[in-house]
Amino acid sequence: MANDVKNSDLIELITKTTPQRKKSRWPAKLDDLQSLTGLILVIFLMFHLIFDSLIIFGNDAMYKITKLMELDFIIEGGSGVPVTIMGVTVLVIIAIHAALGIRKMPTSYRKYKAINTLSKTMNHLDSRLWILQVITGFVLFFTVTVHTYMMLSNPTDIGPYASADRFFSENMWIFYIVLLVAVVLHAFIGLYRVSIKRGWFGLSNTTNSKTRTFDKKVSVAKRNNLKKIRNYLIAFYLIIGLVSIAVYTYKGYEHRDNVGERYNPSSAHLKNI
Ligand code: HEM
After folding, report:
1. Mutate which of 147, 177, 178 to test ligand 1's pocket (most atoms within 8 Å of Cβ)?
2. What pTM did the predictor assign?
3. Where, in this chain's numbering, is heme b bound (predicted)?
4. Contact by Cβ (8 Å): 230, 189
5. All domains of the chain, ordered by start, with CATH?
6. How many other β-carbons are positioned within 10 Å of the β-carbon of residue 215?
7. How far is it, in rounded angstroms, from Cα 46 to Cα 37?
8. What are phi and psi of 214, to 5 degrees?
9. Residues ≥6 apart with Cβ < 8 Å to 200
10. End-to-end CA distance of the chain, in Å?
């Protein structure tokens, strides 16, 4: 087995540089992949929470989007297969994203303490956000996988009554509050950190074009704008998420004597689906 290992790989492993004395490009490539998978998950989440919140506008609105996801405009009556495919795809993306994230987690209490103390000494909020990112990532490792697996294994058990029963009669509302808070913080703090690291949203262009020097004022102003957008997004998604959880739970309470019954659309238009 040991003979299968190339000398160049061994050199790279020990010295972190290639035999040609170039810094290995692997860490950067893995970082790119982590940012890309993170971005895909944030976009997924933004659509997901909006679709989910349609319950606020009534059972028919949620029923309609559920049927759309089941591709009922192509497959008569809809099918659970598209939801299962989406669930498996999302789980694979989550697995890649989490595996790459684990590399950066402090591997011992000592390391965690060192990072924490350093961030406190510097009073640097962005470093503290990194710690929050590690904690929420850890919570999500369990909650998102359980939730996604539950959805993909029972893809047709989604709908105004089925979901509401889960929230109230299966006591899932507590689980969903934990999932919501962790995922919203993780997603938008992550997006903010990646934007700064990669210079997105004009942050790369913080150099004064005349003097060709780093313009601290421009940089700080742009960062502050980005922080504002991050906070608005967190507040918006937490509010619509928490209101949806409250609505689902209340509907589940009202439906508690008929658990297992599935919703039938009430409007004339939807009756024709
Ligand atoms: C394809 C996979 C997924 C499907 C089909 C799905 C579907 C659903 C449904 C129908 C609900 C309403 C509650 C219920 O019926 O039990 C829900 C809630 C929720 N899901 Fe997912 N989900 C998926 C993956 C994910 C992922 C990957 C995340 C996080 C990145 C996530 C985050 C949430 C959150 C935070 C809630 C709480 C609801 C709220 O606050 O409005 N879901 N999901």
Report:
1. 147
2. 0.84
3. 48, 97, 147, 186
4. yes
5. 27-271 (1.20.1300.10)
6. 17
7. 14
8. -65, 120
9. 194
10. 61
- In the chain, which residue ranges form alpha helices assigned H by DSSP? 7-15, 26-52, 59-69, 81-102, 109-122, 125-153, 160-168, 173-198, 216-254, 268-271
Distance, CA 10 to ligand 1 centroid (Å)?
44
The length of the chain in residues reads 273
Cβ-in-10-Å burial (0-12, 13-18, 19+) of 190 comes to buried
Residue 175 tokens, joined: 């689980």
The residue with tokens 């969903």 is 176
Query: What separation in Å is there between the alpha carbon of 263 and the centre of ligand 1?
Result: 19
Q: In the beta sheet, which residues pair with residue 198?
A: none
Please, are residues 71 and 78 in contact by the beta-carbon 8 Å criterion?
A: yes
Residue 271 banded pLDDT, cuts 50, 70, 90: very low
CA distance 165 to 251: 8
- Smallest CA-to-CA distance from 26 within 92, 103, 91 is with 103
Q: Is 176 in the pocket of ligand 1 (CB under 6 A)?
A: yes
Assess whether pLDDT exceeds 70 at residue 252.
yes
Q: Where are the alpha helices (DSSP H) in 103-172?
A: 109-122, 125-153, 160-168
The radius of gyration computed from the CA coordinates of the chain, to the nearest angstrom, equals: 23
**Count of other CB atoms within 10 angstroms of residue 159:** 18
